[in-house]
Design goal:
By secondary structure, the chain is α/β, with parallel strands linked by helices. It is 43% helix and 12% strand. The strands form 4 sheets. It has a 5-stranded parallel sheet, sandwiched between helices. It has a 4-stranded parallel sheet with strand order 2-1-3-4, sandwiched between helices. Strands 6-5-7 form a 3-stranded parallel sheet, sandwiched between helices. Helix 11 (289-302) links the parallel strand 8 (282-287) and strand 9 (306-312). The two termini are 46 Å apart. Mean pLDDT is 86; it is low at 430-454. InterPro entries: ChlB/BchB/BchZ, LI-POR_suB-like_C, Nase/OxRdtase_comp1, P-CP_red_C, Protochl_reductB, Protochlorophyllide_Rdtase. Its cofactor is [4Fe-4S] cluster.
Length: 509
């Protein structure tokens, strides 16, 4: 395994924790050493939950490795049941504990606990977090769900939302309302908010809604095969996808399609002259496969952007993303290394990034605005307000989230036009910060001519630096890089106005 400053996915036991934390009446006994208990912070700090995850750690130490670590696990299981009295338990090992091969599942079977105990086999060195969540939900459904008579009224199960999911809580509310408008009720939402007892009632629904394929597809496939429940394939993120999703639901149920678009704010802007400002803006997309695929459709078909590049970090969705990239005429980037993502973004120099919390930081370094569309995310992406991604209100939220960074660029451009003003010049710093910025260092004695010189770094002359600041901030970085590339290819080490204009003309062809 590769150490990294940051990673897109944690080990698979974190995925299992996301499922356990989303549910009620379920307890997770995790065979893990001291140091693997950091996962609590993911939920209490980032998601701002008011209770800790329902997990008991064995927390064995180095000195325990010479003794009986299996007995530590058995004791932890018995203590967890006596203390929490859950309806069901799941047991497994962290990536470190997997190395000592204690077999938590086998040990739990011999203990005779009076509740279902579901063992998890999560290969930590081959798979990652989303697989862990998908596999955990699948094992729970397979162990607890049973065939039964369908409900008297048409109902469905919402499958896939977990704790620490990107806007999962609000997506549940939005989808419940959309389905309710068609007279369809929600039988069980799993794992978010469900109990093990609720999972035994999954078979009463007429069909399943697969909200997030990364975390619910295995369970949906099993229920389609074993319980005779079809499931939806369209993820309703974006206006077009929401219409397609409800059309799919109508086909499954025989109900008439019902979609109230009166709440949609996008059409009025699309009909305005201001919308032409967005047309053709080049965007780069990266995140989990489901959200990237949804965002690509919105970007091209609903916003009028140009998709300059896209990719995903979860290899389970790589085939789908590669096929999508071919349709968009770009090369897919499938990687878990954020440095590769940064290099691709720097190469493409888009006007905007649609990505994860990682790409937000990349955008800050490169001077490119970024809107977050996918996990992994940080605390600011768990807002207190209602902020779904799915359905009509989700389309409104996405519109605001994507457009505002670009529209605010116009405001920044106006400030740039007045950079020589006593209040707005670069050395004054941001007025709302109340402090001065670090003085900008320029060449103190600009040379009158640009003599070719193959050695040394490229230096911007004062007149060219002032002219560059007139370029809007969201494309200024691209203009600077293009000009420096143009100068380097011609052996120039000093950039003046002539070189700046020549480079502009060269790349405008």
């Amino acid at each position: 395994m590769k150490l990294s400053v940051w990673t897109y996915e944690g080990p698979p036991h974190v995925g299992a924790l996301r499922v356990a934390t989303a549910m009620k009446g379920l307890h997770y006994v995790l065979h893990a050493p001291q140091g693997d208990t950091y996962a609590d912070l993911l939920f209490t700090m980032i998601e701002r939950r008011n209770h800790r995850p329902p997990v008991t750690y064995t927390t064995f130490q180095a000195r325990d490795l010479g003794a009986d670590t299996a007995q530590l696990f058995k004791t932890a299981c018995l203590d967890a049941y006596d203390r929490f009295r859950p309806q069901a338990m799941i047991v497994g090992a962290s990536c470190t504990a997997e190395l000592i091969q204690d077999d938590p599942g086998g040990m739990a079977e011999t203990m005779g606990l009076p509740v279902p105990v579901i063992p998890l086999d999560l290969p930590s060195y081959q798979r990652k977090e989303n697989f862990g969540a998908d596999e955990t939900l699948f094992q729970l459904v397979r162990a607890l769900a049973r065939p039964m008579d369908r409900s008297a009224h048409v109902t469905c199960n919402l499958i896939g939302p977990t704790a620490l999911g990107f806007r999962h809580r609000d997506d549940i509310t939005e989808l419940t309302a959309l389905l309710g408008d068609m007279g369809i009720g929600v039988n069980v939402c799993a794992p978010y908010g469900a109990t093990p007892q609720d999972l035994t009632r999954l078979g009463a629904a007429h069909f399943n809604v697969l909200m997030y394929p990364e975390t619910g597809e295995a369970a949906c496939r099993w229920m389609e095969r074993e319980l005779g429940q079809p499931y939806t394939r369209t993820v309703p993120i974006g206006v077009g996808a929401t219409r397609d999703f409800l059309g799919e639901v109508a086909a499954l149920t025989g109900r008439s399609l019902a979609l109230d678009e009166s709440r949609l704010r996008l059409p009025w802007y699309s009909a305005s002259v201001d919308s032409t400002y967005l047309t053709g803006k080049r965007v780069f997309l990266f995140g989990d496969g489901t959200h990237v695929a949804s965002a690509a459709r919105i970007a091209r078909d609903e916003m009028g952007f140009e998709v300059a590049g896209l990719g995903c970090y979860n290899r389970e969705q790589a085939r789908m993303i590669r096929a999508l990239a071919r349709d968009y005429g770009v090369e897919a980037l499938i990687t878990e290394d954020y440095l590769e993502v940064e290099a691709r973004i720097a190469e493409l120099a888009p006007e905007m990034i649609l990505g994860t919390q990682m790409e937000r930081h990349i955008g800050k370094r490169l001077g490119i605005p970024c809107a977050v569309i996918s996990a992994p995310v940080h605390v600011q992406d768990f807002p207190a307000r209602y902020s779904p991604q799915m359905g009509i209100e989700g389309a409104n939220v996405i519109f605001d989230t994507w457009v505002h960074p670009l529209v605010m660029g116009l405001e920044e451009h106006l400030l740039t036009m007045f950079r020589e003003d006593f209040e707005f010049h670069d050395d004054a710093g941001a007025s709302h910060h109340g402090g001065a910025a670090t003085p900008r260092v320029v060449d103190p004695a600009p040379a009158p001519a640009e003599a070719p010189d193959t050695g040394g770094e490229v230096i911007w002359l004062d007149e060219a630096e002032r002219e560059l600041r007139k370029v809007p901030f969201f494309v200024r970085g691209k203009a600077r890089r293009n000009t420096e590339t143009y100068a380097s290819e011609r052996g120039l080490t000093r950039i003046g106005l002539d070189t700046l204009y020549d480079a502009k003309a060269h790349y405008a062809r």
